[in-house]
Write a structure and sequence with these properties.
Length: 182
């Protein structure tokens, strides 16, 4: 069965639940209308035409920042990074995203990080839940929060993040180290 015939890129058949989840996730999507895009000149002879991808604007401050990954703290001194990873920095605030939809959780996380930075908090705890399923997949929020931390405006607020220690939620939570206000 081909990719369009209900199979994943790896060749595994797509389950009805996955199809339903995809339809639900895409129900609010707005198709890209390339009829409004400016006309492009024809490619030079002998060169293949490339299909342009839509570009999303990135604020100048976030455009220069590299993506963050859990446990890697490039902009932080080694001692602080080690203390963050071991859960030795005082958690000054926490947010629990359990039970929220993706949209609600994203808005709540954005507001929480903005408020925490405005209050000069340095280390916060974001609880996503472990979201472990019987089929071995992990929860949507657990997957999404690291991506949201790398997106504007959050990327401009966050120095580093790492998985929490078991006492603070383990795989179902993240310590987030915030930048100081200027």
């Amino acid at each position: 069965m081909g990719k369009r015939g209900g199979a994943t890129p790896g060749g595994r058949a797509v389950s009805p639940g996955e199809s339903d989840l995809w339809r639900k996730a895409m129900e609010d999507a707005i198709p890209y209308d390339d009829s409004e895009a400016p006309a492009r000149p024809a490619p030079a002879p002998g060169k293949a035409a490339r299909t342009p991808r839509p570009v999303q604007p990135v604020p100048p401050s976030a455009a220069r920042l590299p993506d963050l990954r859990s446990g890697i703290a490039a902009g932080v001194d080694k001692r602080t990074a080690a203390r963050l990873k071991r859960g030795q920095l005082a958690v000054e605030a926490r947010i629990d995203l359990h039970g929220l939809t993706q949209e609600e959780a994203h808005r709540a996380l954005d507001a929480f990080l903005a408020g925490s930075q405005a209050a000069d908090r340095r280390c916060v705890l974001v609880i996503t839940g472990k979201g472990l399923r019987r089929d071995g997949t992990i929860g949507v929020l657990r997957q999404s929060v690291p991506r949201w931390l790398n997106e504007a405006p959050n990327r401009g607020r966050v120095l580093a993040f790492t998985r929490a220690t078991p006492r603070d939620g383990g795989d179902g939570a993240l310590y987030v180290l915030l930048k100081r206000r200027k």
